[in-house]
Write a structure and sequence with these properties.
Length: 635
């Protein structure tokens, strides 16, 4: 039996592929990210990337594990816009831990049980050490007092409502005290919306008036100061337009847009109220004609095309309609549809059409001749904002338009002529809360990275305000979890000896698995330290291990570890003194609570899914075995 186990564990190819794929993310961790060129050998085209998400997007892995990873990262990035590198790194680190366990002859069931237990421990550490944003801002206003370490009031209640968006429903504690995992969606690891945190009851705080957005933004900027400044300015502009107190407001990222202008220096980036879009020269000519007019607007939720059908509509393939009278001279279906739409638009005096999808090129050309401006690829939240401000009713098909669906009170203004395109600002008489961040760069290849960086900052600020809590950053919370896992590993080792002597059943391998999970977190922190350019891998690992050994208190290890990122082993005393003088700011680095929890959960779910899939492929499943369903992820 043991020999067969050794042979089988060598065939856990999925875990090996997951570990190998995670290796590409190492250089994209932490605030010090390096740009990379990725070239397609077939076409010769290249892309400039500096994030895990864009790297995977350009690699396009073809194996099953690669596709699963790609879908997981895409779904996570769509909701959170940050943490993808950490997710994949930890998935790789914990997949190596699982492989190590298999090499030691530990069964899949014991690995899943112990890793799930370790994750519950880490989530509990996060709940107990989260810091309220109100307390953080209050502490920043009084430099004579240390940062409070008290947990958020009701933090355990908040975290208990943070449900994973990986499509995996969990029971944190069952009758055996272990977490069960059941897979309900095997391909798409995401819910339809990201506002699940808002369902968590946030206890009223008398200190809420002290929450300063600029203060919170500084703690979660993670080195992207310029991008975070744009996010803060967008938040302030929203609050100013909505007559809210900026210190108490939230940041509605759904009403934020980006407009990219190549060719201008990066310092020309700015924030404008309204909806700024780039239009072609032909579109701009229509906009010039419509400026300073009060326009009537129609909103199309979908594609503006005769072939578009709403979600869920399935047209039978290969079927045609035979008419009783064949008129070869009649109009085609597309032309007939176009004629009906144009007639409706002219009858309703529509000047502006906002489309969430794409529009038919032929219809756009006909609209231009009638001085009707068509703007494509608008966010759903933008359509909702215009609907609220103008009274327009979004429709799925243009043929559904009536006078009750058309809104009024919209203006179009040309903001800037830029190269071959024109930036136009679309606004309304009443406030919509829409703001547009203008991003610029002389290097065209950097524009995508600058846009990604802004959205990462915007969403970090959004989640910080929404959660009302933050976690110690710069590796602090990871080291708290490492300390906790190592402590329980030693306790489990002692308990295992006692249980064996007493003849009681239990998981005899928990100590090994917990220790390996802790090593994965140490590997993550040390890798981020290496990416600062001031540490080698060996020195970083040694420094972290020394801090863990020297720390007597659990709370102290997080603060000590956060200082490691600004300590440089250099012979240049001037550089060293500057770095040590800024050590205090290292403690002021924080991570998002909801994002961190979701990243860790997704990483472990990915490992356990691949682990069990490998095991099922290798050994098969005997569904008649008693208790087998309790340890399976049901596809």
């Amino acid at each position: 039996m043991f020999g067969s186990t050794i042979i089988n564990q060598r065939q856990h190819v999925g875990l090996q592929k997951l570990s190998a794929l995670a290796g590409v993310t190492h250089s994209s961790l932490g605030p010090s990210k390096n740009y990379k060129f990725i070239q397609d050998e077939t076409s010769g085209e290249s892309s400039l990337v500096c994030s895990c998400f864009r790297l995977l997007e350009n690699l396009e892995p073809t194996c099953a594990v690669g596709q699963l990873v790609n879908e997981t990262i895409r779904a996570h990035q769509k909701v959170y816009h940050s943490g993808s590198g950490c997710l994949l790194f930890l998935a790789g680190a914990w997949s190596r831990a699982a492989l190590e366990c298999l090499q030691r002859g530990i069964s899949v069931a014991h690995i899943i049980s112990a890793m799930s237990e370790g994750m519950d421990m880490c989530l509990d550490v996060c709940r107990k050490n989260s810091i309220s944003t109100a307390s953080l801002c209050a502490a920043s206003q009084d430099s004579d007092h240390d940062l409070p370490k008290k947990p958020v009031a009701g933090a355990s209640q908040v975290s208990s409502h943070l449900r994973t968006t990986t499509g995996l429903t969990r029971k944190t504690h069952n009758t055996s005290g272990q977490r069960k995992i059941k897979l309900t969606h095997s391909r798409h690891f995401c819910e339809a919306k990201s506002e699940y945190v808002s369902a968590a009851p946030r206890p009223p705080s008398q200190d809420s008036k002290y929450v300063d957005i600029a203060c919170i933004a500084g703690t979660v900027s993670h080195g992207c100061v310029d991008a975070m400044n744009l996010a803060v300015e967008a938040s302030r502009m929203q609050s100013k337009n909505s007559d809210q107190d900026v210190s108490c407001s939230t940041f509605d990222v759904a009403k934020v847009m980006t407009c990219v202008l190549p060719g201008l220096p990066e310092e020309h980036a700015c924030v404008l109220p309204g909806c700024v879009v780039l239009l072609s020269a032909e579109q701009a000519s229509v906009a010039q004609r419509l400026k300073q007019q009060h326009l009537k607007v129609a909103l199309i939720n979908g594609d503006l095309s005769d072939k578009y059908r709403h979600l869920g509509f399935n047209r039978p393939a290969g079927l045609g309609r035979v008419t009783e009278k064949l008129d070869l001279g009649s109009l085609s279906k597309e032309e007939e549809w176009m004629e009906n739409v144009l007639t409706s638009l002219l009858t309703l005096n529509v000047n502006l059409i906002l489309v969430s999808g794409v529009a038919s090129e032929k219809l756009i050309q006909h609209c231009y001749t009638q001085h009707i401006l068509v703007v494509e690829k608008m966010k759903d939240s933008v359509l909702k904002a215009f609907a609220s401000a103008t009274g327009a009713v979004p429709v799925t098909y243009a043929t559904q338009l009536t006078k009750h669906c058309v809104g009024t009170g919209t203006q179009v203004a040309v903001w800037r002529d830029h190269q071959s395109s024109v930036a136009v600002n679309i606004s309304t008489n009443s406030n919509t809360g829409l703001v547009t961040v203008i991003l610029t760069s002389c290097v065209y290849g950097k524009l995508q990275a600058l846009e990604d960086r802004f959205w990462a900052c915007a969403y970090r600020l959004h989640h910080a305000l929404k959660d009302g809590a933050l976690l110690p950053g710069a590796g602090g919370i990871e080291m708290l979890c490492v300390r906790h896992l190592q402590k329980h590993s030693r306790e489990k080792n002692g308990d295992s000896v006692q249980q064996n002597k007493a003849g009681r059943a239990g998981n005899p391998y928990s100590d090994v698995v917990l220790r390996l999970m802790a090593d994965g977190l140490i590997d993550y922190v040390s890798t981020v330290m290496v990416n600062t350019g001031r540490w080698s891998k060996v020195k970083a690992w040694t420094a972290v291990s020394r801090q863990l050994q020297d720390s007597n208190g659990v709370l102290g290890v997080g603060a000590k570890c956060s200082k490691l990122f600004l300590e440089a082993e250099t012979e240049d005393s001037a550089i060293s003194s500057v770095m040590k003088s800024s050590e205090a700011s290292a403690v002021e680095v924080y991570d998002n609570l909801s994002v961190k929890l979701e990243v860790w959960r997704k990483a472990l779910d990915l490992v356990l899914l691949v682990l069990q899939t490998d095991a099922e492929v290798i050994t098969g499943i005997d569904h008649t075995t008693v208790g087998v369903q309790a340890n399976l992820m049901l596809l």
